[in-house]
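User: Please run a holo structure prediction.
Assistant: Happy to. Please share the sequence and the ligand.
User: Here you go; the ligand is zinc ion.
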Amino acid sequence: MEQFEKLKLLLKQLPGIGEKSAERLIFSIISKGVGYSSLLSDEIKAVAESVKICSNCGGYGETNPCEICSDKKRDKGILMVLERPRDVFLFEKSKRYRGRYHILGKLISPIDGITPEKIGIENLTERIKREEIKEVILSLPPTTEGETTAIFLSRTLEGLVETVSTIARGVPFGSDFEFIDEYTLQRSIDKRQKWTD
Ligand SMILES: [Zn+2]
C-alpha cells in the first residue's frame, strides 16, 4: 500500500511516533472516514500557516506581535526568559504567571558551537531597556546548558534590571519542564529566588 507507507514515513518524523504508533494512527484515520481525514488535513495546514514567530518575544502567535505581547492587562515589568516557544504554553497553563515572555531559541553549548554571542542577547537587553523591565525570571531547563546560560545571563543583566530571579532551583536537575506537573510549576514561580551564583 503505497499511500499508507507515504503517510507512515511523514508521521514517523514526529516526536514519540514510531512504526507501531504511526500504523495505529493511520488505521484510526481510515476508520473515521474521508470527512474526518479531510478536516484533519485542513486543520493541520491551517495551524502551520497561521501560527508565526512573534518578532517581539520569539514565541508563537497568530498575530504579530503575539496575543501575549499585545495584551495590555499583562504585567509589563516582569519578563520570563525561556528556551523554546512551546515552553510558553506550559507556564500559561499553570495560570500563575501574569508577566510576559522572552524566548531565546537556543542555549549556550560550546560543544555544539553555540557561544554566548549566538543566543541573541542584544534582542533581550534592548527589550529590557525599551520596555523598562524591572524583573527578569530565568526559567531555563535544569541542564548543564540551561545553567550555563542562566549564569551568563545573570551576569550580563546585572545592573540592567532590579532583580534577576530563577525558578530552576525548584525543579529537579536534568528534567524537562514538559514533564513537570502544574502544581510544581506554580510553586516554582511562587517560590522563585533571587539569582545568586
Ligand atoms: Zn510576543
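The mean pLDDT is 90.
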